Amino acid sequence: MIQPKTIALIITTGILVSLPHFLNPYWVDVLNNIGIYAILGLSLNIIVGHTGLFNLGHASFYAVGAYTAAILNTKYQIPILWLIPVCGLSAGLFAMIIARPIIHLRGDYLCIVTIGVNEIVRIALINNVFGLTGGSNGIFGIDRPNVFGMTIRTPMEFYYLILVFGAVTIFLFRQLEYSRFGRALNYLREDETAAEGSGINTAHYKLAAFVVGAVWAGMVGNIYAAKMTIISPESFAFWESVIIFAIVILGGSGSIPGVILGAVLIVGLPELFRDLASARMFFFGAAMVAMMIFRTQGILPPRPRQYALPQNHASEEGGK
Amino acid sequence: MEQFLQQLTNGLAVGSIYALIALGYTMVYGVLKLINFAHSELVTLGAYLGLTLLTSFALTDRMGPLLGILLLAVMVMGLIALVGAMLDRVAYRPLRQSPRLSAVVSALGASIFLQNTIMLIYGARFLNYPHDILPKMTIHMMGIDVPLVRILILFVSLVMMGGLFFFIQKTRIGTAIRAAAIDQGAAKLMGIDVNRVVLLVFLVGPALGGAAGLMLGLYYGQINFTMGWSYGLKAFTAAILGGIGNIPGAMLGGLLLGVIEAMGATYISFAWKDAIAFLVLILILIVRPTGLLGERVAEKV
Amino acid sequence: MTLLSVSRLTKSFGGLMAVNSVSFEVASDSVVGLIGPNGAGKTTVFNLITGIYRADQGEILFKDKSIVRLPTHRIISQGIARTFQTIRLFQNLSALENVLAGCHCQMKSGVIASLFHTPRQRREEKMALEEAMEALAFVGLDSSAMQLAKNLSYGKQRLLEIARALATRPSLIVLDEPAGGMNEYETWQLVALIEKMKERGITVLLIEHDMSLVMKVCENIVVLEYGSKIAEGTPDEIKTDPRVIEAYLGVEEDD
Amino acid sequence: MIDMLLEIVDLHVSYGNIEVLHGINLKVAQGEIVTILGANGAGKSTTLLTISGLVRAAKGAIYFDKTPLHKLHAHKVVKEGIAQVPEGRRVFGTLTVQENLNLGAFVSRDSARVKRTREWIHQLFPILAERRHQLAGTLSGGEQQMLAIGRALMSEPRILLLDEPSLGLAPLLVKTIFQTLRQINETGVTVLLVEQNARAALKLANRGYVLELGKIVLEDEAKALISNPEVQQAYLGGIA
The whole model's pTM is what? Predict the structure, then answer.
C-alpha cells in the first residue's frame, strides 16, 4: 500500500527535477533565486517562526557566510563548496558573539538591535574592514563551484545544486521540528516563563536558535557567492532582511511549506509583473499589507505535529 | 574648541530632528505596542510636500521667509497628520487583535508602499530645495558663527517638543493618552475612548514627522524618496535609546544621538558615522535593557 | 526528614513587603498547605522557591542544598516542579506536547542529534512519549492527548499542568491553587490524585482556597497573612488558632 | 415590585472556546449593596468586566435603568453612571494621585462639580489629599485601593462596582475600607461588590449571590447567607 503522502512526494520531486527543462534560462534563474530565499526563509523560520524571536537583521549572518566564502576562495583558492561548513561555522560564531549579550532583551528592543547589527555589518563591509572585504565594490572573481570534476556554470546546473541543498535543509529541519530541540523552541515562543518553569533553559535555547539559523544562512551565503562570482555590501542590506522576514511571516510562521510558498510569492510574483517596472514595489507593498489583513496567520500556518502514540495508550479509553 | 562647538550645534540641530521623528515612533508604540515602520516614509512625504507647496505657492516670496515657512509647516503638518490617520485606518486597525509580528509585516509593507508611491509621483532622482528661502545668515555666538537655519531648526523643534510635553503632561486629553499607554483596560473604565486616543496619536506623531521632513529639506537642501529610511532608523534608535514609549525619553534620545553622531563623525571616523550610533545603542541596551528612561517591568506571574 | 527548608525569606516590590522573613519546613512524603487571605504573599513564596523571583534575603534549602541563587530550570531539574495560579500552558500545542515539555530535562539529545535523529535520539524520543502518555494517564487525560491545550476545559487544563509538572519526575511538587476553576467532581478527583502522588513518594506543597480540600489532604498547614507567617500546625491546630480565625475569616465587627 | 437599577439576564460569556459564564441572572435595586461571592475562577470578575463593557457577552443582556448596556462600548458605559474599581486596583502607576483622580472624572465636563467631588473624596480618604503630587505607584497597597475607589467615584456613578477591594490588605485596613463603602452607599450610590472575604462582604451587603463555575447557585438576603450552612462550609472557611 503506497500512502497518498508518498505519491505526492514522488510527484513533487518529479516536477521539481524536470522543471528547468521546460523553462528558459531567465526563469530558471528566477527559480534559483526563489530557492535561495526559501532556504534563507527556512533558516530565519527557526529564529522567528519557531522561537518567536524578533530578528530583522538576518542578512548579516548571510553576509558573514558569503564574505567568508569569497575571501577564503579568492585569497587561498580553496574550492568554494568545500567552504560551506566553514561559512556556516563563521556565521554561527558571529551570531553567538553578538546574540549572547542581547539575547535577554525584550521583543522590540531585540528587533532594533538586530537591525543595528545588520547596519553595522554593512557599513563595516563598505569600509573595507580589516582590508579584506573590498569596500563598496565588494569582492569579485569568486570561483565557480566544482562537483565531482564538473564545473557548475549555467542556471540549470545551479538549479540542481540549490535543489539538493534545499531538499537536505527541508529534511533536516523537519527532523528538528520533531525533536526535543524543536519542541523546546516552541515552548519558548508560547510562554517563556512556563518553559523555564518546566525545566527548559530558555537563555540557552534562544541562543541556540540564533546560532542554528545563522549557520544555515551562512551556508546559503556560500552558495550565493558561488552563483554570483561577485558580491558587494548592498546585497546584504536591511532590505534583504525585510524580504526574508516577510517570506516567513507571510508564508506562515513556523511552517516549512508556508515559508517555501512565501518565497515563491515574494520572489516569484514580482517577476510576473516585470512589465510594470517601477510600479512593481508599489504593488508589492500594498500586497504585503493586504495579505496580513486577510490572512493574519500567514498563507499556510503550521499544522499540529503528529505523534505515533505508544500502542498501549493509543487505543485505551481514558478519563476514568 | 571651535570645531567642537560647531559639531555640538550641528549635532543638536540634527538631534532635534531625530527627536521629533522619534516622538512619532514612541507615541504609537506607547499606546499600541506597534513599531510603525511606515513613519519614516511620512517624514519623506513631509519633505516632498514641503517642496511642492513651497514652489507652487511661492509662500516665502509673498510672505517673507519666516512667516512663509511657518505657514508651510502648518500645511505640511496638517496634511501628513491626515495621511498618518489614514495609514492607521487601512494598515493597522484591522490587525489590532492579530499576532504582533503580522502587524510588523503590515507596517513594513505600508512603508514600501508609501516609499514607492512617492517615487512614482516625484521620480527617483534627488530634488533640490531652493537655496534662497532662508537668508544665508550666520549668527555669532560662543565665539563661533552658527548658520541661522541651524538655530531656527533647534529653536522650532524645542518649541514643538515643549508644546507636546505640555499637551501630554498638563491637559486632560494628554493625561488620557498617558493613561491609555499604561493600561488600556483601566483607561476604558475611566470612560476614555481608546480608539480616539489612537487616532490622536496617529495625527500628532505624523504631524511632527512631517515637520521633521520639512526641516531636513531645509537643512540639507536635497531630498530623495529613500531619505526617510535612514532618518527613521536613527530616530527609532533614539526612541529605543531613551526607552520606547517614553516621551521625554524620545526627546533625550534624539538629542543625544545627534550629538554622539556628530562627534563620532568628527573625532572618530566619518565613514563609520552611522555604525557609531548603533554601537552606542547596543552598549547602552546591554547595561540598561529598557533604555535610558524606560521603566523596569517585572512580569507578574 | 526535611526535604525543603525555607528560612527568613524576604522579598519586597517597590517598597511593598510581599514576603517578610518567612520560615517553614516541608518534610519528605508529606502534604503541606500554604494558606492565607488573597494577597498574603503565598504565590510570591512559590515564585521565590522556584527561582522566578530572586529573594532579597533568606535561604532555601532543598535536599540540604541551597537553591536560592539557582535559575529556574536548574531548580526544576533538581526535583521541584510547579503549576501556576493563572494557568500557563502552551496554549497552541497539544496536551501531549505540553507534557513532553516536562520530559525535557530528563532528555539529553542536543541540536545535532535532533537534526539527524540518531538512534539514541529515537530511543529517547520513544521513551519520552511513553512517559508523557503515562503522566497524562496518571491525571486521567490520556484520551485528550492530541487536543490543543486551549481547547480543554479549565479543570482539565489544571490537570494538564499537573501532568506536565509530574513529567519532570519531581520529588517535590508545588501546586498553586490546583482546584481553582474545578467543579466538585474534578476537585474530588484532585484529592484522589494528590493521594496517588503521595503514594508515589512525591511530596506536595500547595496553595489552596478550598478549605475543605486543604483540611482533607494536608498534614501540615502554614498560614501567611500580609507577607508574614502567623501560624503553623496540623489542620486541627489551625482550625482553633484565634489569630488564624481572625485573619482568615476577615473583619470581626462587634456591632 | 421595586424598580431594578441593574438587571442581568441570562448572561453567557466565553474566552476563546471556553464558556466561563453559563447564563447568569442578577438584579440590583437602587440604593442596595449586593455582593457576589465565589471561589477563584468562578466568574465573578468576568461578570463585572462584562457589565463595564471590557468583555463582550456571547449571549444575554444587561440593563441599567432600562438602558441596554451590553451593546455599549466600555467608555460609553461610564457615561451611563457606572464606575468600576477593578481587581488589583490598576491605578496608573506613573501618574500622580491627582492625575489619577482627574482621570476618574474624564467623562465629566463641569469643572466646578469635579472640584466638589474631589473635595468629598479627599474627605473620605484624607491620605489622598496629602499625597496628591506623589506617583500612584509609590503608594502602599491600602492607599492604592483608596485611590482606585476615589478615582471611580470621581465620575459620580449611580452604581459602583468593586472587584475584591480587600485583596492583600491587612484586616484593619479592610475594616476601614468597608466602613467607607457603607458611607458611600449612604450618599445614595448603589454598590455591587465582588469579594472573597465573604464574612466582611455579607456583613456590609443587603443581599448576596453565590457564583460557582459560571453559574449562580444561591441567592438570598445577606443575613440568611451568613447562617446558611453550605455557605459557612465553603466560604466562611471550613475552618470554623
Answer: 0.90
